[in-house]
Amino acid sequence: MMNRFFPKQDTSMMADNKTKSTKPANKTPPKSPADPAKERAAKRLSYESNSSHEGAMAAELSALEEAFRKFAIHGDTRATGKEMHGKNWSKLCKDCHVIDGKNVTITDVDIVFSKIKGKSSRTITFDQFKEALQELSKKRFKEKSNEEAVQEIHKLIEGKAPIISGVTKTISSPTVSRLTDTSKFTGSHKERFDPSGKGRGKAGREDLVDASGYVPGYKHAGTYDHKVQGSK
C-alpha cells in the first residue's frame, strides 16, 4: 500500500490559533430582571423632585416681578410679560400711586422711561424696570435714604394688579330715542310691535287669516262664554 504523507503543521501557528479562538470568560454577572414596582417608585420620586424644584423656582418669583408681569400683559393678548410698553408703565405708576402729583408727575414718569429704555427700543425689561423705579424713588421719597426709598417704592407696587375701569355708560341721544320709540312708528312698522313695544314676530310681518269667527276689529272677542255663564 502506498504511504500517505501529510505535511507537518507548525506547532507555533496552531498555538496562536488556539489563543485567538479562545475568548476570555465574561466575569460580569448577568443583570437580574428589573422589578417593575421599583422602577415605578423611582420614576415617581424623580417626578416629585422635579415638580418640587419647579415649585421652588415659581416661589422665587418676587411680588414685584409678579406685578410687573401683570401690568406688562394688560391690554395686549400677544404680550409675554417679559417686557413692558410705555403706556403700561404709566398705568402702573398711576394705579400704584407712584405718581403723587407733587414729587412725581406723569412727566417725570415719561422722562425716566425714555432714559432707561434703549434708543431703538419701545419697551423695558424687568431689570430696566427696577432701574426706573430707583430713579423715581429719589424723587418720591426725598426724605429717606436711597435704600429705604427703593424699598418704599417697591412696597407701593408689590402684589398689585391693573385697575380695570368700569364700563362707559351710553349717552342718551334724542335722535336715537326717537328712532327706537315703537310708539311713534307708523305704517307697516307699527304693526310689528304691540303697545308695550314687544315684537309680534311672524304676526307682525305677514297677514294671517283670522279664523276665530269674529269680524276684524271686534273688541269683545272671546267674552261670549263668560257672559253666558254670568247670566246663569
Instruction: Please count the beta strands (DSSP E, at least 2 residues each).
Output: 2
Assigned CATH class of the domain at 67-157:
Mainly Alpha
Strands in their spatial order, largest beta sheet:
1-2
Helix/sheet category = mainly alpha
Q: What name is given to the CATH topology of the domain at 67-157?
A: Recoverin, domain 1
Along the chain, the helix and strand elements come as HHHEHHEHHHH
Poorly predicted parts: 5-9, 51-59
In whole angstroms, the N-to-C terminal distance is 155 Å
Rg over alpha carbons:
45 Å
CATH homolog superfamily of the domain at 67-157? EF-hand
Biggest sheet descriptor: 2 strands, antiparallel
- Mean pLDDT, to the nearest integer, reads 76
CATH architecture tag of the domain at 67-157: Orthogonal Bundle
Q: Tell me, what's the shape?
A: elongated
Number of helices: 9
Strand content: under 5%
Helix content: 40-55%
Keywords: Cytoplasm, Heme, Iron, Metal-binding
Pfam family, one: p25-alpha
GO molecular function, one term: metal ion binding
Organism: Platysternon megacephalum
